[in-house]
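Tokens for chain A. Residues wanted.
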């Protein structure tokens, strides 16, 4: 039976790199994986996913997914990057792919926004995924980073603003909860 996977992690936890690697691994086995991203995330031009470490690959926008091909198993797997940006009905479409079409779906995304609140896509995936896995990365202090801080450009952490600011990856860092709460983005300069 196919499964719906949600693999979540904080900023810089190599989610996109892993999505690209999983697609590559399918290819190496002579299978095909379809790499998808939500239409909200078109910062790299329409159809590219790009990881911070430099890996990149072609993808299709969620709305342009070839559903007939997915249903008829032209693809062995569907991989969704930036899955936090999915709407609930899009997550429900993924559920249908898994349960009715028997196609495995692997989603990568952030758990929460810079305020520590769920993205809609993440909330729905947390509720509905068969398998939820954490991709770990660390805070500057060495503890696990579970929060995503938006930098305010003045050495601190933003507390207010729109949930989504695209094309601003460099304005975010992963922090442990304590340092996110304190707004402390690096070690004291001494
Ligand atoms: Zn920390």
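Reply:
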């Amino acid at each position: 039976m196919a499964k719906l996977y949600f693999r979540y992690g904080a900023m810089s936890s190599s989610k996109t790199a892993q999505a690209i690697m999983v697609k590559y691994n399918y290819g190496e086995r002579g299978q095909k994986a379809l790499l998808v991203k939500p239409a909200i995330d078109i910062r790299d031009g329409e159809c590219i996913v790009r990881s911070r470490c430099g890996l990149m690959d072609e993808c299709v926008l969620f709305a342009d997914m070839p559903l007939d091909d997915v249903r008829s198993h032209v693809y062995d797997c569907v991989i969704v990057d930036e899955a936090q940006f999915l709407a609930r009905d899009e997550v429900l479409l993924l559920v249908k792919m898994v349960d009715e079409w028997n196609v495995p779906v692997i989603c990568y995304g952030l758990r929460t926004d810079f305020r520590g609140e769920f993205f809609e896509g993440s909330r729905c995936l947390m509720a509905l995924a068969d398998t939820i896995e954490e991709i770990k990365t660390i805070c500057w202090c060495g503890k696990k980073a579970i929060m995503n801080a938006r930098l305010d450009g003045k050495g601190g952490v933003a507390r207010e603003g729109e949930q989504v600011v695209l094309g601003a990856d460099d304005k975010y860092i992963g922090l442990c909860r304590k340092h996110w709460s304190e707004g402390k983005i690096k070690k004291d300069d001494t």
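Residues 15-28 form the longest helix (14 residues). DSSP finds five helices and ten strands in the chain.
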